[in-house]
Amino acid sequence: MALSLTRSVLLAPTPVARAAAAASREPEQRWMLSQPRATRSAYVREVLDAGEEPQRQEIWMLGQPDPVRESYVRDVLQRAPEPPLDEMWMLRQSDPVRRSYVREVVEPQLARAGAGGEDRYGAGAEAEACEAAGGGEGAG
Fold this sequence. Notes:
Elements: H1 2-11, H2 14-23, H3 27-33, H4 37-48, H5 54-62, H6 66-77, H7 85-91, H8 95-112, H9 124-132
Helix pairs in contact: 1-4, 2-3, 5-8, 6-7, 8-9
C-alpha cells in the first residue's frame, strides 16, 4: 500500500506534489516532491519500479543532470546535522568520474545483492562480465 501511495504522489501533477512536499517532514521527500514531474517520473521508473535497492537510488542520482544533483546537495545534504562529505563530493564530480564509480563500485554491489540489471549508463552487463572474469572490486 505504501509503495502505491508513494508512486501516486510522485506521479501526481506538480501542484499536488508540491502540496505533499510542504506537508513532508523528511528533507529527501520534500526535495523529491519539489522536482519537476519528469524528474519524479524517472525516479519512479528507474528506482521504485526496478526494485528500490539503495544502489538503484544512488545510480539514479549520479545519472541526473548537474542542476538536479546540485539542488540535492544544497537542499538536503548540506542541511544535514552531519553533512555526508563523501556523497557531496561524488555528486559534484564530472560525468566520466560518476560513470566510472557506478560501473566499478555501485553496479557490482547491486549484482552481489542479487538485483542485477543495467543502470542508466548501460554498464550493467559490462560490470557483470568484469566480475565473471575475476575482475571484481579493485580491478580496472
